[in-house]
Amino acid sequence: MVSSKLKRKTPQKRKLNSFVDNESGQVLILFSLIMATLIASLSILHAQNLIAGVESSRAFLSFPKDEIRNLKMIARLDFQHLDRNAEEDVIEQIKLLHASKGTYVDFEIISDNHYRLVYSNSEVYFTESLHVEDEDIWLPSGGGGSSS
Amino acid sequence: MHRMRQSQRFRRDEKAQAFTLEGITAALLILIVTYTLFESSVVVSPIWSEYGDIQLKQLGYDILRSLDVHRTNMNLSACPDTQNVTRNSLQYMLIQLNASNPQPNRDFLNALDAMLDPSIKKRVEVYWVNMSNNNTIESLTIINNTPIPDAVGVSRSIVLYPCEITPTSPFYGSVNDTALVVEVRMILWYV
Q: Chain B closest CA to A99's CA: distance in Å?
């Protein structure tokens, strides 16, 4: 036993031991790198899920689909009963009312029954070409009109 | 020699056990760290209050949309032709408003209350442009309740025809024989 102990302490053995130790150190570094990458990618996935959930609800809140439908309904149902002057007055009033809420709204009159609706605020820019039927259509009683 | 090999094998075994222990400890550590990391950053998405706001806002828009009943017909000689305006519609409510005491009509209130849960409180205001007075925006509160900070607002624009603005109407004089756009704003919140 004594001889073996002495033998172990020879420089050659120590050199071999330190070599082995170094190697396991490298393996440790390799594994810790793998683990770090794994945790980092997991947390990125986690964060992206959070952001997606929050952002989609924000997008729902900020996209003004009901307001745009309301404007389109005014163009389809009310403009046909108004003469050009009244129409321009209505457009002016709509512009002012929406401007007070920080939104730019306009109906550009292209021809008699062709308008271009523009709806724009800090988050959304929306534009659509509207063709309004010129015939006098009143809706059947009880109906609220179609919103498309 | 045999004893030495035995002891060496034993030492090697011991080392392996230590490695296993280390491995388990490391795995546990990583597990704890990952768990704490994710647990501490848990946010229910979408955030609950925001989720409730979305639902309330959509409900508000739907209510205004269903109360916006366009005139089924219009007898221009008998204007304001209230016969052809549904009594629980936004249009009728706006036509019948009286400048001295602006109150919504009963049918409209019944329809509104039927669509809103009793746990939801509301405030209704109307906004319009006074074209006779340098295009200033005027407002009137129809249903007066004081909202809490966590309230949502929805609005809908309604067009009133010239003859529907009677001399008793609060909108009288805002326009000179032309159509008037009235924006109905409804603020909703849970109590």
A: 11
